[in-house]
Amino acid sequence: MTLTHGSLFSGVGGFDMGADNAGMISKWQCELASKPRSVLKKHWSNLKQYIDVNDVKGDEIEAVDVISFGSPCQDLSIAGKRKGLEGDRSGLFHQAIRIAKEMQDATEGQYPRFLIWENVRGALSSNEGKDFEKVIEEMGKLGAVDISWRILNAANFGPPQRRLRIFVIADLRGNCAREVLSQSPRLLWHPPKSTKKRKGTTRKTKASSRETDTYRFQSFGEYEDTDRASTLRARDTKDDTDLIVDETIYFKPHLQDGARVQDTVMGSLTANMGTGGNNTPMVMQPETTIYSIDSAGGNSMKSKNPNSGVNVVDIANTLTTMIPDPSDYRGGNAIVTEDTTFAITEREGKPGGGKGLLMTEELSPTLRTGGTQSIAKPTQTTYNVRRLTPKECERLMGWPDDHTKYDSEGNELSDSARYKMCGNGISTPVAQWICENLIKAVENEQQAT
């Protein structure tokens, strides 16, 4: 079953990516902010784009099966002044309802079939619950007889971000809504079965130590619970591909406490990240050590000095497109973190078949009467505390790497702009789960008839 989709308040397409991944066909988008709209144009250059929702006419745009809209939440959030649906920004919800009504009238009730509204969970309590009552009432006026809602946490669908959002689905011609949200979350990232015992009870960073939890990054939005982290590589940190590494702890800035420990799941990203005031979430990771390994044929490797040939450096040796081979003139690199130990053995065979340096992790090769062997091991464990990068924030939203990095003209956007886009966005794995369930519900309905 192929459903068509259009989005209002599109942001940078968090929901659109989920709809596309699920198999829906997106037809149009609407976004007022120029930078997010330019990101949309870069990734969906073939779609019709509208700017101001106030100017969109439901009887003039292409009719679609599904309209999704995450109308501005500032007036509904518990962090705001809570003017509710009468506020200038959150009141734009009524414009989405108007567009749906105009499309209904123009298509004799055939389109749209579904409305999907996303917002902060504070929408449930705004104005003592009267605002949410109004949301349900307005959808009911469009003819919806099946309206379901549920608070979903992004951390249960893949990315380790505690992002709770309410989703409301209204079926304007049937009874599929309840089937969509009643399903169990489709986990892409599996947390450990039990929390490992921590040493110490204090939560102060300097005084606490803890055993390691490792989650290997598989692809955007997917992580594997494993005892071994992905391979660390020496390169510019702007091009990192591994988000989850050994012993990662997240911190979230807080006005009263300075920084609150979030543990291994990040708190909800917000739109004011990167706008000053140290409000960008932080992460603590073990410091890595880079060892430069000299060429096997060099004088340093022939020296009887046990410390010769392997040196701690700040900058790694040049990486080439060739398979790393310490026996050539360039030497090699080893990236070591925390308690990882490497054994380095000089082999005496032929090049490509047992000659040169052999590096093994943790286990030392068999000791022999000839040849030399060394080990590389950090002398102490230190930690770096830094801000999350925009790329890491994209991964926490389940978006592809660098999704917000460039506009439609190829210009690189500022970090502050990218942080804001992430904070305002919709978690793509959650949207994909909803859309997959929606498609399945419609297929079940058709089979039943």
Q: What is the name of the CATH topology of the largest domain?
A: Rossmann fold
The number of helical segments is 9
Task: Catalogue the unreliable spans.
Answer: 76-80, 188-217, 219-247, 255-259, 362-373
CATH architecture of the largest domain: 3-Layer(aba) Sandwich
Number of domains: 3
Identify the CATH class of the largest domain.
Alpha Beta
Strand content: 25-35%
Name the CATH homologous superfamily of the largest domain. Answer: Vaccinia Virus protein VP39
The end-to-end distance, rounded to whole angstroms, is 15 Å
Mean pLDDT: 74
Q: The biggest beta sheet, please?
A: 7 strands, mixed
Coarse structural class: alpha+beta
Count of beta strands: 23
C-alpha Rg, in Å? 27 Å
Shape: elongated
Can you give a write-up of this model?
This protein has 449 residues and is of the alpha+beta class. The protein folds into 3 domains: 4-188 and 399-448, Rossmann fold (3-Layer(aba) Sandwich), CATH 3.40.50; 198-286 and 383-394, no CATH class; 288-376, no CATH class. Helix content is 20%, strand content 25%. It has 9 helices and 23 strands. The protein has helices at residues 14-22, 34-43, 93-106, 130-141, 177-181, 299-302, 390-396, 415-424, 428-448; strands at residues 4-8, 25-30, 48-50, 66-69, 114-120, 146-153, 161-162, 164-171, 198-199, 209-210, 215-219, 222-225, 249-254, 258-263, 266-267, 282-286, 288-293, 310-313, 332-337, 342-348, 355-361, 373-376, 383-387. The strands form 7 sheets. Strands 3-2-1-4-5-8-6 form a 7-stranded mixed β-sheet, with helices on both faces. Strand 2, helix 2 and strand 3 (48-50) form a beta-alpha-beta unit. Helix 1 (14-22) packs across helix 9 (428-448). The longest helix is centred in the last third of the chain and has 21 residues, at 428-448. The model is unreliable at 76-80, 188-217, 219-247, 255-259 and 362-373 (pLDDT under 50).
